[in-house]
Structures are given as structure tokens and as C-alpha cells.
């Protein structure tokens, strides 16, 4: 059984210019101890999805129209604020992109971690302070006692992100949602934080949902990937399948947009022409249709469901088709064939 | 060899720290850039790459050292006709464009400062610059908030190009953009360089982007250039242990061969109190291979070695 099972989540925002559909019928599950990546660009709905699960969206303007999120036998979206407070930080923790704005500037790092512990456990303030130092040691900060006594501004960006991860993990949650956890960091520190997340997972079996725009990073850490575009999941696959043979034109476009250190220099980077649709005026058919090089007539009128792509007929012998693979595209067989080239 | 377009000699920039002391943001940099060449400047935050970029376009006065552009001294007090020759594109086009002016106005504005053109000539030049950056004439009347991030960055590039500079400095030009748009901006920079014979100084922490765009690459660490060389040599056979670690830190983008190691422990030392000797030695995995504690005692100089131009005692001729 999966640890988290999200079904048919729909979120919209009320704006002065009308309704905006931010998340449109998103379903996914997270297995215990796995790393799942949700990939998308700004406005794709990936962060809203995560915030909605823990009722962290301001309501209004946000409205959760439909959806269930089953976690440990409870529907998170039906819990009271009081019940949610017992879940957040203890069973599910969040780490955001910018550690500077996630930490209280006037409290020491140790005090902030102790506060989390005391909110969830019956523990003396002294024991909480000791546990805070242990938590900082666990995320690889040298001289943790001194770090616990430091204010956020006295730490570097990388140290702040480690402190935030320490705080998120202090109560040993079963699930860690990390929203662009390394985007604000330098590459060497980014590699350190990823190594830390992997280590945490290995040691404690924490499941991780990694929300990111960076496909290269997904390749290094995630087993399964959901690609989001304009509020919907457009492709679900294992990381290996997605990189070897994307079945949605948007995934293919993304992969061809990102240079890696191994990309041949004479190959042209294609990027994806155009821009995502205005969320106030979504197109009636597939949201990617206006930018899509694979579009056919029906794409502009009807929306393709997220289904298993038809067998392209040329699956190599011995390759087991994974049933979890899904793409929301009428032409996914053609896309997969093109992307295999 | 013909005279380089840009020539920096022993450049130093120091900032006073709030509680006394000073930060050597740029600490003795020598650099040359040929006409039409593209040079990448990479390094972590705090390495001094942005400060160096600002000196190059005359936004920051160096404390010592010289900047020469096309053989003439260059700096904040150079005359406008000279300043025009080096233009800069910043990271975030949202904050670098005037939100209350249509973008056509913003693109034409540098012409009003730099030249003696009529309004009509300015407008035509602005249109041509926007066109070169892939934006149709109807964009002239649009406001920044009506554009996507990628379009805004195209406007920022057009505004830099409108005065026909010799050198375009781009400071993290794609970092604030969505992934699908970054590739377009990188390709655009390549096209513009070929079309106008521009020299490019491309400042970025995105090594894969630098590899795409730049023929030569300089790596900075704590205010100094620690390695410089042609793209092929630097990416295939980095000589400095820091360059090696930077390259190893880039996510691989290949799920069949995920990167699992932590390539470089620690963080750069404080620029307020740089370590003695080689500034990289506290993080360097190879410092102990060098006999006689040289790494902790003396700062290596950027010198040509059989492995490339690098400042590292490992490769220094004994």
C-alpha cells in the first residue's frame, strides 16, 4: 500500500480577473521510502499541489474543489486545522527553496528546531535543545552546538538549508516534501544537499517528494517522475523511461532544452517555442497544443487523458513494460518513436 | 597577435565590511578577451565574478589595476562614446526594465544618452534591435508585465545591443528563466555574436550553459582566477582540483548513471578572512600530494603549465 495516495486534486484561485485553475485533476501516489519527483516550470501547479496537501494555501483565494489525499488511513484534505497541526512537521515535513525566508530571523536555529520538537512531543525544553543539536549534527553541520546557538543570518546559504532539513527531519517524518530545495544554492552545495537527502533516506527510510524544474537533478535522485504542465500531470514514468524515451511532447521538449556537460556541441538546443497558456483562458483541448510540434486535429478540441501509451511496436525484446507509465497525449506513440531516435 | 578588445591588468576591488575589515572581491585579476571571442566566467556565489563583470562595463570603479577597451582606458568616468562599447545584460529582466515604460522606450533610451540621433532614427534602431532579438515590431508598445520572462530578457538584450557595443557582458542571463526558455536565449546569444561580431563575457554558475556558449572559460575562486583555458581542454581535462570538483557537482542528467558522490566538502572560506596560502587548500583533496606544506604557505600564481593555465602547486614547475 502506498504511503500517500492523492486522488483527483483540483485547486483554483479566485483573482480579480476571474478564476484560475491552478491544479486540474491531479492523482499520484508515493510509496514508503521512495523518491518521487514532480517536475514542471513556473506556473505548472507543482508547488500548489504540495501546499494543498497540507492545507497551506491561503483560502481564499485558493479553493480546493475536489480531491482526497490518503495518508496513513486518513484523508488529509478532510482533517481539521488542529489535526493537521499534528501531521505537519511530525509525519509530513516541507522544505522550501529559500532557507532565508523559511527561518525566523530573530530566533536561534536551535530554538527553532526545539520549538518543532516541543510542539509534537512531550519533552522538556532542555531535552529539546539537546535533540536540536543532535539534529544539526545529523545533517552534517560541523560544530553543531555552535550552529544551534547561531542566528540564521550568521550561517551561509548551504548551512541554512541544512538547518532547515534538520528541522524538517527532527520528528522523523515518514514523508519529506522538498520544493526546489537546491535551487538557491551553488552547484557544489547543491550536490552536498542531494547527497544529504539520499543519506537521510537510506538511514531512516523517509519517502521524499522532490519538486523541481531541474530535470538533470531528477536523473540523479528520483526513481519515478511526474511531469506537470499547466496544472496537469502530462507524463508519469520511471526516471529511466522518461529520459530514454519520453512519451509526451512537453517532456521531450524539456529534455531537449537542457544542455548537459555531455550534450554534443554541434547539436542545436531546441527549447520549446511559445509560452504556457494564460491560466485564465485555458485552451479547450490539450493545454500544450499551441506549442506542440506533434499536434493533430483533435488536439485543439478534446483533452487527451493520462493513459498508458500504446505500444510503439518496437519495444526492444526483454524490456518489461512498466504498468505505471502514462502520458496525456493522443500521439504518444509517435512522440516515443521520435524520441528514441 | 592583434590587440585584444578587453585587457584587465592586476585588477583589485575591495569592499569595506560593516564591522571593519574588508573583502577582496576581486583580488589581482589579469584577463584578455579577443575581438569576437566568447569567454565564460564561472564560480560560486562570492567568487567575485559579478563584481568583475561590473568593473568591465564601468559600473564599478576598481581600487587598483587597469581596464582597457580597444586599447583605451575604460571605467565609470569614460566618455559616453566609449562607455557605449561595453554593455551588460542582468540576471532578472523583471527588475532591470522600467515597469512604467513601454519596452520600445526602454530599448531606445540608451541611444538618447549615447548619441545625437533624431527621435525617428532612435525608433528605427530600437525596432531593429528588437527584431534582431526575435521580437516583432508590435512589442514596442507593450509593457514589461505583459511579456513572458523570456521575452523580457530578449528586450534586455535588445537594449544592450541598440548602441552597437563591441562587448556584451551577460551576468547569469538565463538563471531567472524557465528551463524551456533558457535554450532559446542561449541560442540567441550565439546567433547575435555571429551576426554582429560581438565579444561576449558570459558570467554564470551554469557550467553546461557556459560550455554551450563560450570558447574559453575562466574559473574564479575567492576573487582570483584559478584556471583559464579553451573550453575543450577545461571541460575534458580540468587541471585545478576546484574546476574538477565544480564539474563533478553538475547533475548528470542520466538516470542510468546517477551521480552519488559528494564531490566537494565544505563551502568557500570567508572572503573577509581568506586562508593563508592557496585560498582553496582547506577544501582541496589533493593538497597533501604537494610536498613541503606549500599549499598552506604560499599562494600559487596563475601560470602556464603543461596541463593548462592554472594556479595550483600541483602543476607548478618545481
What distinguishing features does this structure have?
heterodimer; A: alpha/beta; seven-stranded mixed sheet; four-stranded antiparallel sheet; B: 318 residues; alpha/beta; 12 strands
Report the sheet with the most strands of chain B, covering strand number, pairing sense and barrel closure: 8 strands, mixed
Query: How many beta strands in the DSSP annotation of chain A?
Result: 11
**Largest binding interface between chains:** A-B, 49 and 42 residues
Distance between the termini of chain A: 37 Å
Low-confidence stretches of chain B: none
In angstroms, what separates the terminal alpha carbons of chain B? 30 Å
Instruction: Report the β-strand fraction of chain A as a percent range.
Output: 15-25%
Radius of gyration of chain B: 21 Å
Order of helices and strands of chain B: EEEHEEHEHHHHEHEHEEHHHEE
Average of per-residue pLDDT values of chain A: 87
Percentage of residues in strands of chain B? 15-25%
3D structure, described in words:
The complex is a heterodimer of chains A (341) and B (318). In chain A, 33% of the residues lie in helices and 21% in strands. Chain A is built from twelve helices and eleven strands. Chain A has a seven-stranded mixed beta sheet with strand order 6-7-8-3-9-10-11, sandwiched between helices. In chain A, a hairpin with a 2-residue loop joins strand 4 (62-71) and strand 5. The relative contact order of chain A is 0.13. Chain B has helices at residues 49-56, 80-83, 93-96, 103-114, 119-132, 149-161, 179-196, 207-213, 231-236, 241-249, 294-297, and strands spanning 6-16, 22-33, 38-42, 64-69, 72-73, 86-89, 167-171, 199-203, 216-221, 224-230, 303-305, 308-310. By secondary structure, chain B is of the alpha/beta class. The longest helix of chain B is centred in the middle third of the chain and has 18 residues, at 179-196. The relative contact order of chain B is 0.14. In chain B, helix 7 links the parallel strand 7 and strand 8 (199-203). Chains A and B meet through helix 7, helix 8, helix 9, helix 10 and helix 11 of A and helix 7, helix 8 and helix 10 of B.
Amino acid at each position: 500500500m502506498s504511503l500517500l495516495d492523492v486522488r483527483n486534486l483540483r485547486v483554483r484561485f479566485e483573482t480579480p480577473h476571474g478564476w484560475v485553475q491552478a491544479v486540474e485533476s491531479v492523482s499520484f501516489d508515493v510509496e514508503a521510502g521512495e523518491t518521487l519527483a514532480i517536475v514542471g516550470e513556473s506556473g505548472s501547479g507543482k508547488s500548489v499541489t504540495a501546499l494543498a496537501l497540507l492545507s497551506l494555501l491561503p483560502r481564499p483565494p485558493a479553493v480546493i474543489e475536489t480531491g482526497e489525499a490518503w495518508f496513513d488511513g486518513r484523508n488529509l484534505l478532510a482533517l481539521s486545522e488542529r489535526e493537521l497541526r499534528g501531521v505537519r512537521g511530525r509525519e509530513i515535513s516541507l522544505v522550501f527553496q529559500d532557507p532565508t525566508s523559511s527561518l525566523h530571523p530573530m530566533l536561534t536555529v536551535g530554538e527553532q528546531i526545539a520549538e518543532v520538537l516541543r510542539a509534537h512531543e512531550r519533552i522538556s525544553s532542555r531535552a529539546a535543545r539537546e535533540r536540536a543539536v543532535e539534529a544539526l549534527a545529523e545533517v552534517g553541520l560541523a560544530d553543531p552546538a555552535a550552529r544551534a546557538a547561531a542566528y540564521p543570518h550568521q550561517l551561509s546559504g548551504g548551512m541554512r538549508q541544512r538547518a532547515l532539513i534538520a528541522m524538517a527531519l527532527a520528528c522523523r517524518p515518514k514523508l519529506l516534501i522538498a520544493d526546489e530545495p537546491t535551487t538557491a544554492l551553488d552547484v557544489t552545495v547543491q550536490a552536498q544537499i542531494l547527497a544529504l537527502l539520499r543519506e537521510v533516506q537510506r538511514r531512516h527510510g523517509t519517502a521524499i517528494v522532490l519538486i523541481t524544474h531541474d530535470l538533470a537533478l531528477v536523473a540523479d535522485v528520483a526513481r519515478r517522475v511526474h511531469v506537470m504542465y499547466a496544472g496537469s500531470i502530462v507524463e508519469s514514468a520511471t526516471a529511466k523511461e522518461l529520459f530514454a524515451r519520453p512519451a509526451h511532447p512537453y517532456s521531450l521538449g524539456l529534455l531537449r532544452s537542457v544542455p548537459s556537460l555531455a550534450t554534443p556541441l554541434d547539436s542545436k538546443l531546441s527549447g520549446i517555442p511559445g509560452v504556457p497558456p494564460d491560466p485564465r483562458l485555458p485552451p479547450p483541448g490539450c493545454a500544450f497544443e499551441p506549442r506542440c510540434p506533434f499536434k493533430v486535429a483533435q488536439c485543439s478540441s478534446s483533452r487527451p487523458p493520462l493513459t498508458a501509451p500504446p505500444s510503439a511496436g518496437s519495444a526492444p525484446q526483454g524490456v518489461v513494460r512498466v504498468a505505471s507509465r502514462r502520458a496525456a497525449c493522443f500521439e504518444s506513440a509517435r512522440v516515443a518513436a521520435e524520441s528514441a531516435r | 597577435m592583434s590587440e585584444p578588445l578587453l585587457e584587465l591588468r592586476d585588477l583589485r576591488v575591495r569592499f569595506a565590511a560593516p564591522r571593519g575589515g574588508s573583502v577582496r572581491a576581486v583580488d589581482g585579476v589579469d584577463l584578455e578577451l579577443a575581438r569576437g571571442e566568447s569567454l565564460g566566467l564561472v564560480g560560486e556565489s562570492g567568487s567575485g565574478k559579478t563584481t568583475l563583470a561590473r568593473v568591465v562595463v564601468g559600473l564599478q570603479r576598481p581600487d587598483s589595476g587597469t581596464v582597457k577597451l580597444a586599447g583605451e582606458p575604460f571605467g565609470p568616468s569614460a566618455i559616453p562614446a566609449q562607455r557605449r562599447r561595453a554593455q551588460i545584460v542582468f540576471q532578472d529582466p523583471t527588475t532591470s526594465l522600467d515597469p512604467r515604460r513601454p519596452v520600445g522606450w526602454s530599448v531606445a533610451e540608451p541611444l538618447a544618452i549615447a548619441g545625437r540621433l533624431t527621435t525617428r532614427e532612435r525608433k528605427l534602431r530600437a525596432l531593429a534591435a528588437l527584431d534582431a532579438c526575435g521580437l516583432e515590431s508590435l512589442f514596442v508598445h507593450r509593457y514589461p508585465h505583459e511579456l513572458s520572462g523570456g521575452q523580457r530578457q530578449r528586450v534586455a538584450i535588445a537594449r544592450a545591443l541598440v548602441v552597437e557595443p563591441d562587448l556584451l557582458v551577460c551576468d547569469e542571463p538565463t538563471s531567472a528563466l524557465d528551463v524551456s526558455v533558457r535554450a532559446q536565449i542561449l541560442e540567441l546569444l550565439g546567433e547575435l555574436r555571429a551576426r554582429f561580431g560581438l565579444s561576449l563575457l558570459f558570467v554564470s554558475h551554469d557550467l553546461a550553459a557556459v560550455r554551450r556558449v563560450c570558447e574559453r572559460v575562466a574559473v574564479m575562486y575567492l576573487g582570483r582566477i584559478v584556471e583559464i583555458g579553451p573550453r575543450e581542454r577545461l571541460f575534458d581535462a580540468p587541471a585545478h582540483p576546484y574546476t574538477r570538483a565544480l564539474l563533478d557537482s553538475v547533475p548528470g542528467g542520466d538516470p542510468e548513471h546517477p551521480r552519488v558522490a559528494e564531490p566537494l566538502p565544505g563551502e568557500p572560506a570567508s572572503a573577509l578572512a581568506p586562508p593563508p596560502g592557496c585560498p582553496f587548500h582547506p577544501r582541496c583533496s589533493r593538497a597533501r600530494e604537494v610536498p613541503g606544506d606549500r599549499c598552506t604557505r604560499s599562494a600559487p600564481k596563475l601560470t602556464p603549465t603543461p596541463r593548462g593555465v592554472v594556479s595550483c602547486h600541483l602543476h607548478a614547475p618545481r
